[in-house]
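Here is one chain, start to finish.
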Amino acid sequence: MLWRLDGTYHTKFNEQLTLDQPLTVEHILPQKWIEHWPLATGEQGLTNEELWDVDAADSRVAATRQRNAAVQTMGNLTIITQELNSSVSNSPWATKKPALLNASLLPINQQLVGCDVWDEIAIEKRREELLKRAITVWPAPLAPSALPG
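Its structure:
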């Protein structure tokens, strides 16, 4: 699906790329984000164990849950080589962004050039952009009443 979405960024001005190696799905905001990706407040997020033990009124609870939910959304996923995936893995955005932009020629990754911060807002914005593109690739079928004849 991500490969097809990448194709929506291609125009007649782009070179045609062929791949001789498989790509892997990468979580831009890593699944193990707590160590290198502070919350918007600058505080460290909570582990699953800490979420059980901390006071529910702690502002980090809602922020951590929101971030955990964002990790598994389409806006946070991309495709890269396994070698690049292994090298950037759980790295902070300041490390991961230049690595992605320098190593990947795919337009779906080059769109990240303007993202100075990768957080829930950036993930949601990218999700909306990818959804618009997905609708052009896979439009909803017409309802039977809208079919001619």
